[in-house]
## 1
Amino acid sequence: MNLVRSELLKIRTTSTWWIFGLISLPLWILALLFNWLQTDALAGGTLEDVPAEQADQIQAVQSADSLAANIYTNGQFFGLLIVMLLGIIVVTSEFFHQTVTTTFLTAPHRTAVMMAKLVAGAVIAMLFWLVTTALNLVFGALILNSVDVGAQFGSGAVWRAVGLNALAYLLWSVLGVGIGVLIRSQIGATVTGILLYLGGSIGAIAVLALLASKYGEWINKLQVAVPSLASSLMVSGAEIPGNPPRWVGAAVLIGYAVLAGVIGALTLRRRDIS
Amino acid sequence: MSDGQRSPTTDSGQIVVSGLTKQYKNVRAVDNLSFTVASGRVTGFLGPNGAGKTTTLRMLLNLVTPSGGGATIGGQRYVDLADPLRHVGAVLEASSAHKGRTGINHLRVICAAAGLPKQRADEALALVGLTPAAKRKFKGYSLGMKQRLGIAAAMLGDPRVLILDEPANGLDPEGIRWMRGFLKGLAHEGRTVLVSSHLLSEMQLLADDVVIIAAGKLIRQGPVEQVLGSMAQGGQVRVRTPQADELVAALRAQSATVETGEHGVLLVGGLDAPAIGKVALAAKVELHELTPERPDLERVFLELTAGKAGIR
């Protein structure tokens, strides 16, 4: 527990956390505006000219549950990215500033250090989730009321989405810490993380689509194996026809997080600090 | 410092390195190295750049995994110490703090991890004279202040054993003087102080014992005087006189050896300074200088490590 306290103190005593907080705020506002417009459009039913095969999907998205879930998990796209980057920095800043020597002198059992970093990353992730969710519940309810959908606070699906959103924040912070251990360079790890999060999904979709056209449609189902796609599946507001169930996305993401944590711990144990 | 100050109670701070080896891909950085470091004394760990000093210290502290052999501090491996900071303090790099963190917070982070009370951070800062800079960020520290902060961090747990890697690097003369007094004081309290350096003149003033390595191998270990003594240069004495011919004749009559050095300096062997003075007086020769030549650590070091230094 001493180690976790120390890790949290490390984060608190540098400017990183509030810089990331400051970056998050405009991104959250941007996301809120976008989701406001989208909610408005969907609730107003202005999207009528859709092909028949997509009608089911649209209907699912248009449901009150889905609209509410979407708005209460607002800011998630960039929020997860921020939380992952914080997880990366929790590790890479130790190598960047050469404080890792002191850290391991203080705590020679490196697995314990890794666990402390994972827990500290998770605590930060939960704080970001908590603040974002609190804001979402206030402004989301206003928006939903303004489009006559209602706040939907009584809906189980809404709270499930909020809960899964918390899980997503948690898992991406773990992934961040894992990436940070594997790629010590601050810039290298950050770029890799961003690519994995943003570009990775697009690239993976393109590659999988190419493979699918060659080997058959089933390959498209592998999309869920891509971390960012698994994540977006997991936090999609409601079950959408044609997509794998949300728990699959959750399982895949948990798998990646555990893998990142374990490989990270093993790597850290063996590494020479010179 | 005399051997009399070593007491059995402080001997739990003894460092034992035995058969330590580190093989990198193409280089054997440390090669079957064994030595011991006693408590209550300052031990200089000497070697040319690239001799394997830092690698040895890092293996001792469980930061680098040895390819063979091992090292213990007070009979235990570093990784097995229950509260490492309460046993061992180490200063390895001057620049090992987050640039955006204040000095006091740097120490508090370590206190938190080691389970030490927060006020130890203030006490350690005061100990190294950094209290006025406590709330300044690390990036605003001078090199000397960074070294002091490193020492403060090492002293947080009030350890029996101190290990410092090139602590004099980048210090100004005042800083070096302070460091020398500080480390000697710690040894005087019965602590073990192991200091690596390639600055030999500094070690001659600071160390009680020396461990000299080159190319990863042990060259010589022992008390400074003993290591110097083993390399004594035949005890020559520098003599300057306006009447060189008469003095040379008188000295040779006493079967002394005389060589002529630069600027008319005579290097006399076989007689010590008082004897030479007596001869000069008897011969009514005027003396301008009479200096026994001491072998200095620098020369011993260069001779001992000749051909083993440099790039490997």
## 2
Amino acid sequence: MIELENVSKAYDGQEALSNISLRVERGEMAFITGPSGAGKSTLFKLLYLAEKPDNGTITIAGHNAARLNSTSIPLLRRNIGVVFQDFKLLNNKTVYDNIALTLRIRGYVEKDVKERVHSVLKMVSLRHKADNYPLTLSGGEQQRVTIARSIIGEPTVMLADEPTGNLDEENEKEIMKIFKQINTKGTTVLIATHNRALFENTARRVFFLDGGKLKGEEQ
Amino acid sequence: MFSLRLALKSIFNEKWMSLLSMFSIGVMLFILIAVAIVVYNVEKLTARLPERLTVMAILKEGATAEEVKAAQAAIKAEPAVKSVTFVSKEKALEELKKSFKKDDFILKGFGENPLFDSFDVKIKSEGADGVRQLIQRIKSIRAVDDVEYGESLMDSLYALKSGLRALGISIGIVFLCSVTFICYATVKILFYRHREEIEVYKLLGATRWFVRAPFFLEGTIIGILGGVVGSGILMAFYQYFLRRLIADMPMFAFMSIPVQFLYMLPVCGMLLGLGGSVLALGRLKY
């Protein structure tokens, strides 16, 4: 479950988010949309605890973000899978190692790491690219590696920031199929996008953000 | 295990910087240990110096047999005295003649024996002050006229010893700080080079310890390897310099290198490497 209550955030006096309140239920898949600069990425940064809100409270994966101390933040992040707009893949590591990193950080033994990485690679149809380096992959493939890395730890909440940006229609469909699959397994999924095609003709909730303010919500 | 793999990979990837750090640490530790060896050998040499000193207690002319006997007993009763041997002036002349060999004609100029009865006193290991006090006590014995011993040699050796000790400690502190600084700078550079990677680790839920561990290990490994380089230089120094020096100039035969020094260098490098890493990462916010 994700819940924001009267959340505000400003940078150098410039308000990026203003009094945002929204709630995404456990196991739900929802979208946040709005033009560039609407505050989608800022909202995500608050959700994965890269930044702290100036006002308001954020509850994510059952924890009040404001009450977490610095030693608890890494443990909460393990419950949140994030798909970054710029992928944030380590270019000096292979696809396998990029995905395995999530499990190694949690102290998994190599045997389990191997098993789970191969299973996730199969899910995102990249088993044959396990030994490749990110820069040798297409944009769609890199995005799928990022998704694989975020889901391998079986998070309860998944955040995806512009997951289909710069991807062609076929890759877009492929990526959305993976998110639906993850959501079916019970993971709460929140996707930030300015691509209306992703949520049009779906029964999902959509939050509209503009100029740092929540303009509305529709299903 | 993963942290160790990351540390080794990072050292390998940044091999030139790592090698430079290791060799700098190795050379510094070698210089440090070379100073320690000099101090150690001077300590060793001076520790047994009193044993090698010949203390001659010259007896007053006309001292009675009882007085001589009492003086011998009094000297022997000193805890620092190993042995006391009476040397008559006739025996002393004989010894002198022997030492002059063919040049004993020099002594023929003397009408009578110019020497005195004396005691040859051998003493146990004592510090310079202990020896001086002992000499004073011997001098105060009634039958004893004067005491002769290698005072100036002993004083200069003891002065050299304390000077070297102070120099050794100063050089030691400077070099220990330098080695720590090299490890500190190396780890800090490596940390900044991996900043983007660390950012990703954090976002994936890595704890502070997980992020820091590879850098602690890197500093420690570089320190150990630097110590091994230092031990290598020390062995080469012994094999190609000291051994030849001793063979050619036997006066340096007292010099030795304790084998523990070879193990000490990597241990010292390890501790300094770890210390440098802790300092480097201690105040970084991430």
